[in-house]
Amino acid sequence: MSGQTFDVVVIGGGPVGEVAAERAAKGGFKVALIEHELFGGECSYWACVPSKALLRPGNLLAAAKRMPGVVVGDALDPAQVFTRRDWFIGRDDPQGQDHGQVGWARGVGIEPIRGYARISGEREVTLSDGQVLTARHGVIVCTGSVPRTPPIPGLDTIKPWGSREATSSSAVPARLGVLGGGVVGVEMAQAWARLGAQVHLIITGKRPLPRLPEFAGDLVLAGLRADGVIVHTGSGIDEVSAVDGGGASLKLTGGEDLVVDELLVATGRVPATGDVGLDVLGLPTDGPLEVDESGLVSAVDGGWLYAAGDVTGRALLTHQGKYAARVAGDSVAARGRGETVSTAPWSRYSATADHHAVPQVVFTDPEVASVGATEAREGSADRVVDIDIAVAGSALTADGYTGKARMVVDTDRGVVLGVTFVGQDVAEMLHSATIAVVGEVPLDRLWHAVPAFPTVSEVWLRLLETYGL
């Protein structure tokens, strides 16, 4: 393989890299996909998939308890939960944890190569074993992101959990500390509390999920506390020290001392650009790779370097990264064929949704599902409509159903800019909101999208009625 030339070389074999490689291969190009760990990446083995496998049983048990007549137990069986999670991530597969992804790559015409890769020159990538690959048309960087580690004194004296350890452990800690009120923090706090751990969630503000509407954080906070999670608001960790026999002693902001068996540090992620070889190109190695709408790194001459996913810092979500990867893969293929690539908004070669319609679900109980704007734009005539989710469908879904919905409307154009739902089982309603935002469906036309009765989606009718239609 030494000295081979490909049309396109993709660095990073996670979901984003796989999609970018597939799109380029479908364009008729010879593509190499390089991965130093497992093909399928972070989301498949350490993040999205295993975390939801840990969360789903607890959500189902809680839902069943809200329904009279359903006979259920009081607690989960952790061993069975872990066994099901392990099946999803292929942990015990005798052929290798990622053999299915490797086979898929070869089946669609991609050459999977295992190893570390660094950009070593123009259209050139060098592997850790010394092999040099040349790309005729483009290199696409899809190296994702890595956890951000806060500078807490003494943190290096213990072995804290990151998101990988939190989704991979098969032992329930008696006492778990979770630092951070973002998505990873709240999801893992609830998952492990329902598996039997005493969980302490430590957050800096009054509520978790600070980037979402306040009612979302308030309802998730109530859900966490209902599961026994002890939430330390307006707090942080000033110092960490190891405890004899294992565990950690935490000195919280404000002076409180707390001892835990494991500490999950969930304080965000940063683009993984530090070891890709960007220094060879004179680019910074401590921040995101800035790209245009087609995924092209415009700071590099020659139009050959692309990037997609978390590494660009645009929208750190797997589905959004795959969307950008489709754009990048299609763009490099089209340019390689000598075609004109238009990056006009909403065109095939433009990741426009990154700016206007990024959908996200927080898989806690209650769930949070949001897309687009969460509040009115400053200085605009936008209108925010907030209502309770109180329709026949929600009442039938669960006794005591508690949920809220928000719709942000551009009153000048009469279109929806964003929607947020909070409540049990709202995740599956998100795509309808995404279509409304991306399609800029006029409200007077949306009025004719009649929701079936009795479903929770009837909340759309209530939102439009409240708006004044």
TrEMBL record:
Its cofactor is FAD. It comes from the Bacteria. Residues 6-318 form the FAD/NAD(P)-binding domain. Residues 358-460 form the Pyridine nucleotide-disulphide oxidoreductase dimerisation domain. InterPro entries: Class-I_Pyr_Nuc-Dis_Oxidored (IPR050151), FAD/NAD-bd_sf (IPR036188), FAD/NAD-binding_dom (IPR023753), FAD/NAD-linked_Rdtase_dimer_sf (IPR016156), Pyr_nuc-diS_OxRdtase (IPR001100), Pyr_nucl-diS_OxRdtase_dimer (IPR004099). The keyword Acyltransferase does not apply. Its EC number is 1.-.-.-. Belongs to the class-I pyridine nucleotide-disulfide oxidoreductase family. PANTHER family: DIHYDROLIPOYL DEHYDROGENASE, MITOCHONDRIAL, DISULFIDE OXIDOREDUCTASE. This is NAD(P)/FAD-dependent oxidoreductase.
